[in-house]
Design a protein that fits this description.
InterPro entries: Ald_DH/histidinol_DH, Ald_DH_C, Ald_DH_CS_GLU, Ald_DH_N, Aldehyde_DH_dom, ALDH7A1-like. This protein is of the alpha/beta class and 501 residues long. It contains 14 helices and 23 strands. Bound molecules: 2-aminohexanedioic acid. The site of 2-aminohexanedioic acid has 10 residues, from loops.
Length: 501
């Protein structure tokens, strides 16, 4: 199916932002390198105009009661339900993930819409005991303002929806800068949003907008003081650029950056479960999730049992066209393949024994970049294993002592996701204790990837510290206000201060 046919199956009408003129962004499919189409780019001036529109939308939207804002998000969820297959397919075409995962990503969008609709009737604050007689103290949550969302190619639509569904019910407009590699899925989401907004009838213009372009366009958003929150997903290097710029104007950042996620496999582990979870975590989405499993820390006593099973499973994994039933699709581009090759070269130089890896299907797809997943037995956790390479590479080391395994797991600079396979309750509880995993996500007997939207999603250290999606992540999209009301006829001062005139 061509992209035009896909769009027509989404019944979205003509594409805004698309064009064939020079100076536009050419978008190709990682499946075969073919041209999908051209998209017009924004300029810093057009970003500034769009921020202006978002500010106007905010003035209206913040006055709408939360549950009514939730109704718009409910309608968006309905559009997503109706178009799950087509949008999932578009994700596959533009990003290269397998169809099953493309649809899974849209399901994640539907789930967060449901969550946000419920939340729109809560957004609850606190009452707090005042030390003064006849006084009431409380904490309220108010809409914050336009939210800038910067998303990556690997989850081209779900990350927008986590932010947008929450921002909208919290009373905030959204300006979205999608990855330059996946603008068409963004335009499709925007078209679905506009249709939900038309059904809703009372959404102000500019409530959801897209800005397309390279780093200068991201910077225009990041530097604009009218955007109080920047929610950015991508590499640690990107976060390192964005965070100080936002901080220098006292803006707020929600950072969702890299991960170097490990699974510890203990002697009591159910190895059948472990193999399935490890393989999905390591090779699913061609290793291009921030939650992908990149390191294995295996107890010495089971290492020789587990490794052959893993290697056999890696060999069985089919690599190929993601629309035709393969389990692993292409890498996003040539740079990703080169990074994978380089990491494997480095692993060998550092004493690693590599199985798999290397480009495949080059004859059939000379302009696409498919790679065999690689499993690497390392003599120790060091060098290349300490870095996140966005590719299907799984490094394995042995451990003897559980505390040492936890220390190894926590020794990397990122702290996103982690998992332990163990049927020993002492190990499991220790792993989830203050001295256990230092990651934002810590699982027992499931893998590192594939989090549900109900929990807060994000991680510590160089992962950036942000939390998106479920639990109370909504609070970052709101302004906290502490209010004290004096309903007495006296004016007692706090801390018992006497100030008589
Ligand atoms: C990402 O890779 O940026 O937990 C997000 C997961 C998915 C989201 C990944 N729900 O793997």
């Amino acid at each position: 199916m061509t992209i035009k046919e896909l769009f027509s199956s989404l019944h979205l009408g003509p594409l805004d932002h698309s064009g064939d003129q020079a100076g536009t962004l050419a978008v190709t499919s990682p499946i075969d390198g073919s041209l999908i189409g051209h998209v017009k780019m924004d300029s810093p001036q057009s970003v500034a105009e769009k921020v202006g529109k978002a500010v106007e939308a905010f003035a209206i939207w913040r006055q709408m009661p939360g549950p009514q804002r939730g109704e718009l998000v409910r309608l968006l969820g309905e559009e997503l339900r109706a178009h799950k297959d087509a949008l999932g397919r578009l994700v596959s075409v533009e990003n290269g993930k397998i169809l099953e995962e493309g649809k899974g990503e849209v399901q994640e969008m539907i789930d967060i819409c449901d969550f946000a609709v419920g939340l729109s009737r809560q957004l609850y604050g606190l009452t707090i005991a005042s030390e003064r007689p006849g006084h009431a103290m409380r904490e309220n949550w108010q809409p914050l303002g336009p939210v800038g969302v910067i998303s990556a190619f690997n989850f081209p639509v779900a990350v927008w929806s986590w932010n947008t569904a929450l921002a909208l019910v919290c009373g905030d407009p959204v300006l979205w800068k999608p990855s330059e590699k996946t603008p068409f899925t963004a335009l499709a989401c925007q078209a679905l949003f506009l249709r939900a907004a038309a059904k809703f009838g009372a959404a102000p213009d500019g409530l959801s907008q897209i800005v397309i372009g390279a780093a200068d366009i991201g910077e225009a958003l990041v530097d604009d003081p009218r955007v109080p929150l920047i929610s950015a997903t991508g590499s640690c290097a990107m976060g390192r650029k964005v965070a100080p710029r936002v901080a220098s104007r006292f803006g707020r950042c929600l950072l969702e950056l890299g991960g170097n996620n490990a699974i510890i496999v203990a002697p009591s582990a159910d190895l059948d479960l472990a193999v399935r979870a490890i393989v999905f975590g390591a090779v699913g989405t061609a290793g291009q999730r921030c939650t992908s499993t990149r390191r294995l820390i295996i107890h010495r006593s089971i290492y020789d049992d587990l490794m052959p099973r893993l290697k056999a499973a890696f060999e069985r994994v089919t690599v190929g066209n993601p629309l035709e039933g393969a389990l692993v699709g292409p890498l996003i581009d040539e740079a990703a393949l080169n990074a994978m090759d380089k990491a494997l070269e480095r692993a060998r130089a550092e004493g690693g024994v590599v199985e798999g890896g290397g480009r495949v299907l080059a004859d059939r797809y000379p302009d696409a970049f498919y790679a065999r997943p690689a499993i690497v037995e390392m003599p120790a956790q060091k060098g290349v294993m300490m870095d996140e390479t966005f590719a299907p590479i799984l490094y394995a080391v042995k451990y003897d002592d559980f505390d040492a395994a936890i220390a190894l797991q926590n020794a990397v600079s990122q702290g996103l996701s982690s998992a332990l396979f163990s049927n020993d309750v002492r190990e499991a509880e220790l792993y989830l204790s203050a001295t256990g995993s230092d990651c934002g996500i810590a699982n027992i007997n499931i893998g590192t990837s594939g989090a549900e939207i109900g929990g807060a999603f994000g991680g510590e250290k160089e992962t950036g510290g942000g939390r998106e999606s479920g639990s109370d992540a909504w609070r970052v999209y709101m302004r906290r206000q502490t209010s004290t009301v004096n309903y007495s006829t006296q004016l007692p001062l706090a801390q018992g201060i006497s100030f008589e005139l």
